[in-house]
Amino acid sequence: MIRFQDFSFRYQAGKTEEPADFALKDISMEIREGEFVGITGTSGAGKSTLTYSISGLIPHHFSGDFYGSVEVNGMDTVEVHPEQLARFVGQVFQDIDSQMVSSVVEDEILFGMENFQVPRDEIAKRLEEVLDMLGIASLRRRQISSLSGGQKQKVAIASILALQPDIILLDEPTGELDPESTVMIYEILRRLNREFHKTVIVVEQKIMVLCAYVSRLVVLDKGKVMFDGPSDSITGEIELFKSLGINVPRVVELGHLLKRAGLYSGKIPTELDGAEKMVREVCRC
Ligand code: ADP
Fold it and tell me: Each residue of 221-251: pLDDT tens digit?
């Protein structure tokens, strides 16, 4: 369980800089175990800051003015070191290249486990498990630099999963991926959530993908929570989303309306093929 209580944070300004605005303001919300939450909003809204607040990088790595509290599994993030939190929270950063420390896939996955002093026989077991879970066993001896963006993303997720966190935080995991790889990554996240009961929190600008996969959507704007609710309730909030610069694609709008009317029960489409399938199913043609 993650609990934000009246939480605000402002990054420390440089010596010659004007004091910055609060990156997050008055955040009070809870994220329960097993949720699949999407965080969206325009650039600068505070999405990455929210993830750093959960993983403890705020206030331990980024200093600034910190008000209120953030608790993760009952621990106050101010009081515990991020390394201790990392046993519960696995974070995949936006820039995965900077996250990678090894040149070979297998070494990358082993590195975190060795750092965490996981017992030897347990390391071997977990390595096999995560390679298998992400379908990347054939890549284990490959150079990371030779992988595609989607493959690298899978390796980053596998390295985090090997540490067996309850909560997985991902910051725009599909930012540089094509639609096919995007869907592939989200299918993996769905499986981790449903089959392995992980709490998944994902920062994503592609609202269409979020609506198709997450159950709860949080929209940030200028550091504030502007919407927090089930992703299928967004049809009533299209105007709010537009005013925040977030475009809800017509096909998502249509999918939710058809679902609400009881005419469609399948997946909300995230691409044209899916939209065509949905329309065919509704029309039975
Ligand atoms: P988003 O992820 O939604 O694009 P961020 O959380 O990165 O937003 O940024 C929120 C605000 O905090 C922005 O005004 C940004 O300039 C500021 N900010 C982010 N990181 C830092 C940092 N390391 N130092 C100072 N200000 C920062």
Answer: 999 999 999 887 777 787 898 899 988 878 8
* CA–centroid distance, residue 44 to ligand 1 (Å): 6
Under 8 Å between Cβ of 27 and 225: yes
Return mean pLDDT, the chain. 91
Pocket of ligand 1 (CB under 6 A): 11, 20, 23, 41, 43-49, 62
Ligand 1: distance of its center to the CA of 200 in Å?
A: 22
Q: How confident is the model at residue 270 (pLDDT cuts 50, 70, 90)?
A: low
Ligand 1: which atom is nearest the Cα of residue 203? Answer: 2
Q: Nearest C-alpha to atom 20 of ligand 1 is from which residue?
A: 49
pLDDT in tens, 65-111: 999 999 999 999 999 998 889 989 999 998 888 889 999 999 999 99
Whole-number Å distance between alpha carbons of 54 and 49: 9
What whole-number distance in Å separates Cα of residue 215 and Cα of residue 269?
Answer: 15
Question: Atom 16 (ligand 1): residue with closest C-alpha?
Answer: 44
**Ligand 1 center to 281 CA (angstroms):** 44
Cα(223) to ligand 1 centroid in Å equals 9
The set of residues, in sequence order, having a beta carbon less than 8 Å from that of 111 and lying 6+ positions away, is 101, 102, 159
Q: Give residue for tokens 């093929």.
A: 273
Distance CA 231, CA 239 (A): 15
Distance 191 CA to ligand 1 centre (A): 31
CB < 8 Å & 24+ apart, contacts of 18-24:
21/222, 21/223, 22/65, 22/223, 23/49, 23/64, 23/223, 24/49, 24/50, 24/53, 24/220, 24/223
Measured CA to CA, the distance from residue 56 to residue 62 in angstroms comes to 9
